[in-house]
Amino acid sequence: MTDWTKELKQVLGHAEAFAARHPRALTGSLVGLLSCFAVTAFGVAPLAPDAQDLPQTTIAEAVRSHDLSAQLADLAEHEVALSRNDLTRSSDTADSLLKRMGAFDPEFAAFLRTDPHARRVLQGRAGKLIQVNALPSGRVESLIARFPADRPELQSTHFSRLRIERSGSRIAAILETAPLQSQVRLASGTIRSSLWAATDDARIPDAIASQIAEMFSGDIDFHRELRKGDRFSVVYEGLTADGEPITWDGGAGKVLAGEFVNNGRSYSAVWFRDSVTGKGNFYTMDGQSKRRAFLASPLPFSRVTSGFSMRMHPILQTWRAHLGVDYGAPTGTAVQTVGDGVVESAGWQNGFGNVVHVRHSNDRVTVYAHLSRIDVKKGQRVEQGQKIGAVGATGWATGPHLHFEFRVKGAHQDPRVIARASESLTLPGYAKGQFQQAALAARTQIDVARSLGQGVSDAD
User: Which residue ranges does the record assign to the M23ase beta-sheet core domain (predicted)?
Assistant: First the structure.
């Protein structure tokens, strides 16, 4: 037996003894070290046509490693910290939260219960992002909580970060405000029952689902024209807090591009911001604005319970012309103005209950009735898509719904017909070159999003 094989047996013996004493500290690094322990290198002169006439030399050299026993001992002394992420729950206590995170630390739990800043981890709405760093013994080294910023005006751009850290025998909490970061996300889905259900299945935030409906509202009546099997692909901004996707309301940014296939016909759009005016809008891939003067509906998601036609009045029990469209939706559902304008009146009006009238250009007026809440005042200027109130059942109403009317020079018109016939905005000439670049990039992203969705469909 050669000297180096004897040495190898001795080191393996040390390693076996170490494993018996410290089974948890024995890691893959041991395998890596042993693989480098002893190597015998051979060099043979290259063979040429007359190689048999050339002298050949064999060289053998043993390569010695450092003391493996000392390295294993150092590894045993090192205590590895464990890190785990989760969301707070409404039922959490200080002890149950730490236990779920794999930590047992009565001192740290007591700090969570008593410190004013630390108590915020357990108070308020559930869903805060929690990261706990603890030793294998269960002793917590730090806890970081991320949740919406305290100031409402900052919640779309910033988040609150609460750091609770242990330094020696002292535990301290620091509350900070930090900016949110955005990252591009791709998603795709198929309509089974409704757009809302499909976006939920695709794990698309509600805010993005609303923007999808807004983006294609001029092409598709989402209340009447959706078909089972319709498909959509979307590219959007997802907001993160320290790289972690946020789960609270406002966790989604802007839709950047999208495609919707409705009843076999494909529609696509891309978000583009005019660098001169600073205003953004959705455009088709050939530069035609997706935005019309009026949205197809004041509610992104609802169902039409009564159209623009003759009907039996539910309260008066007589046949009457229904001069608007009724949308069924839960009380409190946000109502948006369908176009830019000025609030002509806002208040109580007999059978309409709480009602808002908005005057638009060319002597056109829209009416929003039976509201549970009014969020605008007479004379206030409003923009398309702005929230003006909430669905309710005030006035002559048998249940929560929105009664919506469209009047042109005092005459009632079918709102859905007016929306589709309304004029569209145009892309300024100076912006066309920049837009073409944005559209090209959007096409590529939509193709990728679509392929991801096709893969899921094939798997189903």
Answer: 321-415
